Amino acid sequence: MTARYRTLQVHRHADGFATLVLNRPEQRNTLSNELRGEMVAAIAALEADHGVRVLILTGAGRAFSAGMDLDEWRTSDKLAAGAYENDPVQALGSFSGPVIGAINGMAVTGGVEMALACDLLVASTEAKFADTHAHVGLLPGWGGSVRMARRIGLARAKELALTGRFLGAEEALAWGFVNHVVPPDQLMAKAESIARQMAAAVPETLVAYKRVLDEGAALPFAEALAYERQASLENNARVSGETIDAHVAAMVARRKKEAPR
Question: Looking at the whole model, is its pTM more than 0.85?
Fold first, then answer.
């Protein structure tokens, strides 16, 4: 039985992926403690579901997420409105398969941190990004400064973080902040197409390759090479020639079926 959430929608797809929708459109999908708690629970359930190998994250309405719920912040007696209790970025990191962000509109501050936690981003032409932490007197605590500098380089990260300006979709594409920009009515189709291609990979290898990429990116070059070699030796020793032949045949058949006629 699928759990019901007040602030999220979860859609499972037969092709091996799920879509998680932030569903507070009237509040521009601000990250209330309730929403963050439901995200933690929903992602844990999706991680436990072997039929879900890829996750798409998007927002309902015109915004991806405008960041923390400031109304809640004003009334909370907890440090930073309990921001570190239900950490949505940590929850996204606990999903072992690829996470695709489908950025449908504005992503601001905490919304940017959440977008940066995705493995890749598909943006609508209406998407725009702003990190306003410095302009409201706060510092990021969900890894936004680290991920932004690594994604677009230190100088560009400083420009965004210290000016607080909006980065439009096309500029975000030129900077390498997002992978693809498409018209709004094509956003989910593009994200789902990528998800299907990923979900068609050998399930355990999909997870292992993502791990190799993530771990290697965090290591010095020589250590990353050694890490990859060790992971390769451990994985590839378990794979027989017959298994490879079967996977190749399945891949060729799938691509023939998908090829335009």
Answer: yes
Question: Contact 169/126 with Cβ under 8 angstroms?
Answer: yes
What is the reported pLDDT for 105? 98
Number of separate helices (H) and strands (E) present in the chain: 12, 10
Domain that holds residue 97: 8-199
Structure tokens at 138: 């706060």
Residue 106 DSSP SS3: strand
Question: Cα(first)–Cα(last) distance of the chain, in Å?
Answer: 40
Closest CA to 56 of 115, 131, 144, 109: 115
Give pLDDT tens digits for 164-176: 999 999 999 999 9
Amino acid at position 5, single letter: Y
**Is residue 2, in this structure, part of any structural domain at all?**
no
User: What's the number of domains the chain is made of?
Assistant: 2
Q: Are residues 134 and 148 in the same domain?
A: yes
